[in-house]
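Before relying on records like the one below, remember that each one covers exactly one chain. Contacts with other chains, cofactors or solvent are not represented anywhere in the record.
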Amino acid sequence: MTLPALQNTSVFFRRVLSQFPQDISLAFAYGSAVFKQAGTTQGQMGKNMLDFVFAVDDPVTWHTMNLIENRKHYSFLKYLGPRQISSIQSDYGAGVYFNTLVPSDERLIKYGVISTDSLIDDLLHWKTMYVAGRLHKPVRILLQSENGKLRAALVANLKSAVNASFLMLPESFSEEDLFLQIAGLSYSGDFRMVIGEDKSKVSNIVKDNMQHFRILYNNILQDCPQVVYKPQQGRLEVDKSPEGQFTQLMALPRTLQQQITRLVDPPGKNRDVEEILLQVAQDPDCGLVVQQGIYSIVKTSSITQSAKGIITAGLMKSNRPLSPPARKNSIIPIILPFSSPSAAPQRSPGALGSSAGTFCGPKQHLEGFINLKSLIFGNLRPSKVALQRGFCCQGWKRLWMFCQEQHL
């Protein structure tokens, strides 16, 4: 079974792909410029940035060729060379290197590069859920190689999304309930949803794309022994017995099982994972525990990948003319959240949402860059950063606004 392409690749997408090195194992387009969302018109879709992900077998070779063909796509990091770019891609954040705000055929595009091995790992184990989560939703497959491991991992990722959603849903629910749950998995814990993302985003994705979700998940639901699927009525009934939930928990990706274990098992007890999952299966709050596990995975990857995106986007792009609401959110104010507590102005609770400007001196900005580097390179856990570095609500909002403006 392969992940279905929703329609034939158009001439436009073929032209986009022709601009890049051809050693790609999987290429797909996703997002609001590809699939209509509730509340948007076709005209608005045509103005949205096009988002792509390319999986490549050999990132060093691919970036070497891409630097020759498309050097202007890269930030100042191009001067470090393809090996360092590949290292930044693979070792930090969610294993993806994004080039954003790239002009292509009278449109702006953003493309992320991930190694095929890292993609397979994320699909199977949900190490970050960054690309795996995007593939829970309908995407437009542009190119797919004959890599059997990748094909199997793509299907396994969809099955994992179904299993996790079953655990968080009641015994009986609608198709729409299921697809809303699946689409929301990768947004659970994403700091951008907390700070400023449209709270109806998940609903907007699902509402106008029900048929695409059915195409994506129909075979899995038909073949799943844990559910009674009634496609004509659009209803499903899932086994919520402890035995049924234990079967679903055992089928979850490894990283999620590990997160659940950390949440449930007291420190020092070191019980077997199977024993812990059996306990969770009998807990009335089983679905909540699964949700918390997913939250912890997404939270870390969304923060570190977005922070890494500030560097891969570069100062030139980050300081390009912004739309009026985001003009004050250039790279310098963005560093404020990562500055020391002494750099953050004292605000009353009512002032957090104000548009009043803030100023940090050179010393505070240097501290901010150091803390940003520590966050990206994994030396500081996001929770500790939030507690110890004095992040303010306005600072987080600025980080989100920057990420939104740069499509990071």
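The chain has a mean pLDDT of 79.
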